[in-house]
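Problem: given the chain below (68 residues), write out its structure.
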Amino acid sequence: GMVNLHDRIERMCYLGPEFIDITWGAGGSRPAATLEVVSNAQKVYGVETCMHLICTNNPTDKIDKALS
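Solution.
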């Protein structure tokens, strides 16, 4: 799935978006995977990213850790 995602990000970048939105932990993914996607989008493809943090059903300590 990650290879497919990076391929799609690369193709989207050809359209010149001002930024892309990456949902934190989407589909049950690991938080580290979200950070990897964001980092690659910025470093490899040069596109600004916005991490969309889902707070529903997450304990406060987990949200605080994600924000830090």
